[in-house]
Design a protein that fits this description.
Layout (H helix, E strand, L loop, with lengths): L2 H5 L5 H26 L5 H16 L6 H8 L1 H10 L2 H20 L9 H21 L7 H12 L4 H19 L1 H21 L5 E8 L2 H11 L5 E6 L6 E10 H14 L4 E7 L13
Antiparallel strand pairs: 1-3, 1-4, 2-3
Helix pairs in contact: 2-6, 2-7, 3-4, 3-9, 4-6, 5-6, 5-8, 7-10, 9-10, 11-12
Length: about 290
């Protein structure tokens, strides 16, 4: 398989649209079924939008539409994403913002449970699932997702735990205004959401591959065509067999690892592959573009 076929194969627009619509629908149903029933505050700008709605409703006796606030809040992050991440990603993300906002306003409210702990856990799971589906389609739910993705593109680091910390700060305001019980249950909601995203969204995580082979020239040639990642060779000797072997060392994206390992085994069925989790990479590391 040529490099362009693997690294730059574009995702079908139909799949992206399906992910955007599904993510928006799940997000809206989650807000109308779990969030509003428990009086919680979800993560990101959805939570900030709900906080602003409740401030207007409680202190000014004004009912402000979810759509108007959410779209207004996302203007600046969308501009940032447009410049750093890309046009298609931003446009599809804006489509999800618009769809989810409209769905929240038009879909009926329906409470599945009023138990705050169940709402916090399962609401957080569904929120994380909605965001992960959008990210799978190379889109996002906007707001802090725009910011997190922009930072990840620049640094190749996962930033979702930092988003969680930011959301906790927002909840301090919500707790002060509307009661600490709702804020504390919202922390459970947001923690569950963050963990689901960390579990399902693997794009900005890396794995280290150690490959022992007897055909290093052929394997290196094929892998360098197959991916953009550099490879370092070490010559060694088996302690038991006393035979000469070559150790290949490379770092790849976690989402790429299984496909690359399959390619290695196609080229050299006798290759020994050790996969290790990579916490941090400093230096030049190729990240396949979103668009």
């Amino acid at each position: 398989m040529a490099q362009s076929e693997y690294m730059y194969k574009k995702q079908p627009v139909a799949l992206t649209l399906l992910c955007v619509v599904a993510g928006a629908l799940i997000s809206a149903l989650n807000i109308n079924s779990f969030v509003n029933a428990g009086g919680l505050f979800p993560s990101g700008f959805n939570g900030l939008t709900i906080l602003i709605q409740r401030i207007f409703s409680t202190f000014f006796n004004l009912e402000v539409p979810f759509t108007a606030i959410n779209i207004l809040l996302n203007v600046v992050p969308a501009i940032i994403a447009y410049k750093i991440i890309g046009k298609k990603f931003t446009l599809f993300s804006c489509l999800m913002i618009g769809l989810s906002s409209v769905f929240v306003d038009v879909l009926p409210l329906s409470s599945i449970t009023y138990d705050p702990l169940l709402i916090g856990v399962f609401g957080g799971i569904f929120n994380g699932l909605a965001i992960s589906i959008a990210l799978k389609g190379n889109a996002s739910s906007g707001g802090t997702d725009f910011i997190a993705m922009s930072v990840s593109v620049k640094t190749n680091l996962s930033t979702w735990n930092y988003v969680f910390a930011f959301n906790v700060c927002v909840l301090i305001i919500a707790g002060y205004l509307f009661g600490w019980d709702k804020a504390l249950y919202s922390i459970i909601f947001q923690f569950c959401s963050t963990q689901v995203i960390n579990l399902l969204h693997q794009k900005y995580k890396q794995m280290t591959l150690f490959v022992i082979t007897d055909i290093p020239d052929q394997l290196c040639e094929e892998l360098l065509i197959y991916t953009h990642h550099g490879i370092t060779r070490f010559d060694g000797e088996g302690a038991y067999s006393r035979r000469k072997h070559t150790l290949l060392y490379t770092v790849v994206g976690r989402g790429e690892a299984k496909q690359i390992i399959r390619k290695i085994k196609e080229i050299d069925p006798n290759a020994f592959v050790n996969v290790a989790k990579t916490e941090y990479v400093e230096g030049r590391f190729h990240q396949a573009p979103i668009e």
